[in-house]
Amino acid sequence: MIYLLRHGETEWNREGRLQGHRDSPLTERGLSQAVAMGGALRRAAGEASGFTLVSSPLGRTLATARCVAAVIGSDPAEIVEEPRLMEHGFGSWEGEIFAEVEDLHPDEWRAREADKWNYRVPGGESYALVAERVGAWLAEQPEDARLIVVSHGLAGRVLRALYSGAPSGDVFKMAEPQDALFRLSGGTIESLPASLGALAG
User: Which of the following is catalytic: 7, 9, 125, 152?
Assistant: First the structure.
């Protein structure tokens, strides 16, 4: 069983900037989202006994993982950092406003739209390369694994598609909420919404 979370909102998320392998700190809202997801996880999995907490090594995911660990009573020193769970590398586009990328790089944007799965952003990655590394990590996990995974929007969508056996094109239709977690079990995926209000109960 895998509980999959995306990191909470960051400053660059709020500004609409591409982060990729670069980073920005969690906002107050992002910290609240992390705490809420920890609460949802605690309700779903109890005190998470027997689960290993695994995180992308980027600052925003580690900050989220530490918040989650505090809520579920897990030792943050035991968080396992896994580079293969890092976000899609956007190379030279990182730090740019996503809504402006098409105007700034029209030729590159057209090439990407023509083959979104295989197009490699200059200095970065393609979806196919992300799937290769995420898939390699997933293939190593035993059937009886008990994991809490903190990753990213795009990398998390790819992981969910690989787990469920969905066609690669489905990745582009998936949601990537920062206030929910997904339970991957028995080949099925269930969304578990989180809310601060529910934490009080």
Answer: 7
Told to judge if 176 belongs to the known catalytic residues of this protein, a careful annotator would answer no
Residues 6+ apart with CB under 8 A from 170: 161
The half-sphere exposure of 184 on its side-chain side, counting CA atoms within 13 A, is: 22
Q: Which domain holds residue 128?
A: 2-199
How many other CB atoms are there within 10 angstroms of residue 134's CB atom? 26
Q: How far apart are CA 199 and CA 154, in angstroms?
A: 27
Pick left, alpha or beta for residue 180 (phi over 0 → left; psi -120 to 50 → alpha; otherwise beta): beta
Total tally of structural domains belonging to the chain: 1
pLDDT, tens only, 169-196: 999 999 999 888 999 999 899 998 886 4
Q: Which residue out of 9, 82, 87, 125 is catalytically annotated?
A: 87
| Residue 116 exposure: Cα atoms within 13 Å on the Cβ side | 8
The pLDDT value given to residue 45: 80
Look up 88 and say whether it is catalytic. Answer: no
CA pseudo-torsion sign 46, 47, 52, 56:
positive
As given in the structure block, the two tokens for residue 46 are 């109890």
The least confident of 38-42, 65-69, 127-131 is 38-42
Tell me if the pTM is above 0.85.
yes
CATH classification at residue 76 = 3.40.50.1240
pLDDT at residue 94 greater than cutoff 50:
yes
**How confident is the model at residue 14, as a pLDDT?**
96
